[in-house]
Amino acid sequence: MGRKALGLSLWLGALAFALDRGHKYYQVEMAGWRGGEFTNVTSFFDYVLVWNPGISYGLLDFLPPGALLVIMLAAMVLLGFWWVKAETALVRCGLAICLGGAASHVIDRFLYGAVPDFFHFHWGTWSFYIFNISDAAITLGVGLLLVDMVWPHKKSGTQPQ
Q1: Inter-residue long-range contacts of 53-57, CB under 8 Å, 24+ positions, other chains counted
Q2: Is 117 assigned a catalytic role?
Q3: Is 120 helix (H, G, I), strand (E, B) or coil?
Q4: Single pTM value for the model
Q5: What pLDDT score was predicted for residue 161?
Q6: Facing residues of 51 across strands?
Q7: Helix 65-85 with 89-112: angle, nearest 10 deg
Q8: What is the DSSP string of 29-91?
Q9: In this predicted structure, what is the pLDDT of residue 88?
Q10: Could you give phi then psi for residue 42, rounded to 5 degrees?
Q11: Which of 5, 6, 102, 127 can pair with 122 through a Cys bridge, CB separation 3.0 to 4.6 Å?
């Protein structure tokens, strides 16, 4: 894998991190949102601020923030090792985007003790979970990893049978 793939993955990870940090800084620090704010944008989308003390879907919200921080850092270290060993640009980019989003969540835990979520899609009584830019980045990164899993790869040294 070349330098371009390495540079692209670093750039994408940094972009995911920067977009999320910039959005949260603006909304929480500059606009002064503290939680519970609500703006109805369309019949299926609201812009809100909800604090998530757990991880995805509020899982593990019973754990103290420090324990969640340790779990998140351990996961990031493992993803970092995978990133270093990645053999395709798609995997490296997917992991970097996940790491950028996860790093922003770690900062949220340090700053706020929870993760601020803003985007709420819903339809009638059905409600999709409330998420932020980091969550979207992590989902995109996992999507790239899944694409790499199903994408046909040429393997060196193999013969067609």
Answers
A1: 53/113, 53/114, 56/129, 56/135, 57/129
A2: yes
A3: strand
A4: 0.89
A5: 45
A6: 116
A7: 160
A8: IIS---S--EEE-SSSEEEEEEEESSSGGGTTTTS-HHHHHHHHHHHHHHHHHHHHH--SHHH
A9: 94
A10: -140, 180
A11: 127
Structure tokens at 32: 């002064």
Tell me the chain's radius of gyration from C-alpha atoms. 18
Q: Which residues contact 158 (CB under 8 A, 6 or more apart)?
A: none
The pLDDT of residue 91 is 96
Give the pLDDT confidence score for residue 145 in this predicted structure.
97
* Token digits of residue 101: 């989003």
Cα 123 to Cα 10, 18, 27, 113, 130, distances in angstroms: 37, 30, 25, 30, 13
Strands 126-127 and 45-52: unpaired
Active site residue 108: no
What are the mean pLDDT values of the chain's consecutive 10-residue runs (161 residues total)? Answer: 87 98 98 96 97 82 85 95 95 98 94 94 92 97 96 63 45
Q: Which of 20, 46, 108, 117 is catalytic?
A: 117
All structural domains of the chain with their residue ranges: 3-33+59-115+136-150
Q: Which two tokens stand for residue 144?
A: 């790239």
Beta-carbon contacts of 73 under 8 Å, excluding residues fewer than 6 positions away, are: 106
Q: Report the candidate in 80, 95, 76 with the shortest Cα–Cα distance to residue 148.
A: 95
